[in-house]
Design a protein that fits this description.
The protein has one domain: Rossmann fold (3-Layer(aba) Sandwich). By secondary structure, it is α+β, with helices and mostly antiparallel strands. The chain has helices spanning 14-24, 39-51, 74-80, 84-95, and strands at residues 28-34, 60-64. The longest helix has 13 residues, at 39-51.
């Protein structure tokens, strides 16, 4: 298992991303943004297109809940964002696919 921290969206180191996905065969794209029409979903699509034959499972995405606005309450904001439990569940689903 590897974690790649994408620090810039442009230029995007796609070679690093694709090589890592091909090496492991599975991928979880994690973001704090809402997933609908997000960069994370676009990246998951690009990974699926470029690494299709090396993938052992569908590319999984995990992000914030789709809400009309970010809650102003800290507790609600924390609930809408990915947390340790959500990430652990997503990884477990990928590993058992």
């Amino acid at each position: 298992m590897e974690v790649i921290d994408i620090r810039t969206l442009y230029p995007l180191d796609e070679v690093l991303i694709y090589d890592t996905v091909k090496r492991h065969g599975k991928c979880l794209v994690l973001t704090e943004e809402a997933l609908r029409n997000s960069f994370a979903e676009a990246m998951a699509c690009r990974i699926a297109q470029h690494c299709f034959y090396q993938l052992d499972a569908p590319v999984k995405t995990l992000g914030a809940m789709d809400l009309p606005a970010v809650p102003m309450n800290v507790i609600l904001e924390q609930a809408m964002l990915p947390n340790v439990e959500k990430v652990a569940t997503a990884i477990q689903e990928l590993l058992t696919f």
